[in-house]
């Protein structure tokens, strides 16, 4: 099934007021290993093609600046933090990845946990189909459990992804916390699913700003590359845990 056919079926089965199309940002530039970032929903009240926005201008600044940085960390490695995320540089990074929102109905700035849960429970089969179409080598779930809202990785494990292993964790290099993950099977291969913070996070354990928050998160994303993506060519990765 193509993205076009999937989204047509999705829209036909549910009464959307503002369907948000997403998926592989730019098939011509979708690099191996395939990176899929999973978010909750989009602050938008009209139908929209998110991938088209990202190809043209990288969409908004804070969310997509940080996802652009994290994409560079996972695909290129290297220690230098890409502070400059101008529109052109943001587009260059974002066209290399896939992105999807669990809730396809556009929302407001703050996600409603009950609406997100209902969307995942009732549309889990199509969410899974979209993930398979993206054919990821790693899934980064941007949004942790907080304020009564289940984390994205938990939602996927509990309602969407079959054949998932038990939770495991690895320590952050920058913060006094662990990042949790599990493996699932997508298109016949083992894929790590990692719970990470939202790219618009402004405070993690009291850390704020570029030097204290965004730069350490970038280092942790470099660490994720080393742990789970041993090679950035051919899609080879560590499928045996850490």
Structure in words:
With 242 residues, this protein is of the alpha/beta class. It has seven helices and nine strands; from the N terminus they run H-E-E-E-E-H-H-H-E-H-E-H-E-E-E-H. It has helices at residues 3-13, 50-57, 62-76, 87-94, 113-134, 152-159, 209-228, and strands spanning 20-21, 23-24, 35-39, 48-49, 98-101, 138-142, 168-171, 178-186, 189-196. It has a seven-stranded mixed β-sheet, sandwiched between helices. It has a two-stranded parallel sheet with strand order 1-4. A hairpin with a 2-residue loop joins strand 8 (178-186) and strand 9 (189-196). Helix 2 packs across helix 4 (87-94), helix 3 packs across helix 4 (87-94) and helix 3 runs parallel beside helix 7. The radius of gyration is 17 Å and the shape is globular. The chain starts with a helix and ends in a 14-residue tail after the last helix.
Keywords:
alpha/beta; two-stranded parallel ribbon; globular; 9 strands; 7 helices
Briefly say what this structure is.
With 242 residues, the protein is of the alpha/beta class.
- List the uncertain runs: 232-236
Structural class: alpha/beta
N/C terminus separation: 34 Å
- The helicity comes to 25-40%
Average predicted local confidence, pLDDT: 89
Strand content: 15-25%
Give the oligomer, counting copies of the same chain as homo and different chains as hetero: single chain
Present the secondary structure layout.
Elements: H1 3-13, E1 20-21, E2 23-24, E3 35-39, E4 48-49, H2 50-57, H3 62-76, H4 87-94, E5 98-101, H5 113-134, E6 138-142, H6 152-159, E7 168-171, E8 178-186, E9 189-196, H7 209-228
Parallel strand pairs: 1-4, 3-5, 3-6, 6-9
Antiparallel strand pairs: 2-5, 7-8, 8-9
